[in-house]
């Protein structure tokens, strides 16, 4: 008998056999076949199951090895897991490590994201950890082939990633808009306590990631710790150490005409042993050659310690650049930079370059509402504080406020009253307001 009638036939005290338990979460091992040489295919099947359901919970429970059998040069762009059109996704990676054993080399264009998302909402990823076993020596002139840990690639919103860690590879985090038709910039992404060791890039917001944040970040041995361009409404708190790229923190308008509303704290820790950083500048605000670009509403709190940096010409603490000597008609507006600079080395060059001399002339650009300070610089009095005032077209558009600098102030193209100051001391002398 079936249906409700079957209930009446149960003997008194009879216990019905329990139904087989259904796991509340998915694991890669549930999708691994005996013939699989490694864990690569299992992760792909897991992501396909989540996509089909439109939601899901995932747990990673052990160490995994992926991409170990793919011939060099064959990947192109191959995510380990691509989640698409998922609403409500939780991935618990605590205690697990994904090791990418793929043999990356400069001769192949291969990039391999581990967690890639598109058209996803309400996503939580906890403690994802990636390791790339074969790494390419840094620095390199261009982005290298390699593993990316977390990749929001368009039309995502509400992503929380806690305690992500990447060792080696190309990037811990790369946020951009992919090539599928209909994708729009991601928004509402929060990275909490990210850790990057030896990856080429720490965190990248490339035209995507509106209203997002990075808190408690640490990047070691990268070319670039954090890269924010062509996007707005980003907050970050990142410390960097032993990095070796031309610039460690880049905020710029490069392909789209603007970057705006960026609030950040950037800390450069002393090098762990005496060595040369090989860097041009720690923090760079740049309009790449694109006409009419603007960098606006930027507030930075910088804390830089030059201890153990043996570079013969010091890396600049911060710079304003345009990567060309041509006129772009760009605008630097409402920018405030403050902080502390410690242990400036006995070195030639400039500690600061506001409108870099290598990009002069700056008369074709405009600057409005630039405030430098409060700022304390400590160390050698040999480096100079350089500022080209040509972009300041009207009274008071450059302001030094509560600045203490041991060396000389080097200003060029100073129009009358284009620069104002309040309690600004250079080479032991208070400069006129």
Give the arrangement of secondary structure elements:
Elements: H1 5-8, H2 40-53, E1 56-59, E2 63-66, E3 81-84, E4 87-92, E5 97-100, E6 111-118, E7 121-126, E8 129-132, E9 146-152, E10 157-162, E11 165-167, E12 171-175, E13 187-192, E14 195-197, E15 201-206, E16 212-220, E17 224-229, E18 232-241, E19 247-253, E20 258-268, E21 281-287, E22 294-305, E23 316-321, E24 331-344, E25 350-354, E26 366-379, E27 384-388, E28 398-405, E29 409-412, E30 419-426, E31 429-430
Parallel strand pairs: 1-4, 2-5, 3-6, 4-7, 5-8, 6-9, 7-10, 8-11, 9-12, 10-13, 11-14, 12-15, 13-16, 14-16, 15-17, 16-18, 17-19, 18-20, 19-21, 20-22, 21-23, 22-24, 23-25, 24-26, 25-27, 26-28, 27-29, 28-30
Antiparallel strand pairs: 30-31
Keywords:
2 helices, disordered N terminus, 47% strand, mainly beta, 433 residues, single chain, Pectate Lyase C-like, 19-stranded mixed beta sheet, twelve-stranded parallel beta sheet, 31 strands
Describe, in plain words, how this protein is organized in 3D:
- With 433 residues, the protein is mostly beta strands.
- It has one domain (28-430): Pectate Lyase C-like.
- The chain is built from two helices and 31 strands.
- It has helices spanning 5-8, 40-53; strands at residues 56-59, 63-66, 81-84, 87-92, 97-100, 111-118, 121-126, 129-132, 146-152, 157-162, 165-167, 171-175, 187-192, 195-197, 201-206, 212-220, 224-229, 232-241, 247-253, 258-268, 281-287, 294-305, 316-321, 331-344, 350-354, 366-379, 384-388, 398-405, 409-412, 419-426, 429-430.
- The strands form two sheets. It has a 19-stranded mixed beta sheet that branches. A twelve-stranded parallel beta sheet has the order 3-6-9-12-15-17-19-21-23-25-27-29.
- The radius of gyration is 26 Å and the shape is elongated.
- The model is unreliable at 1-17 (pLDDT under 50).
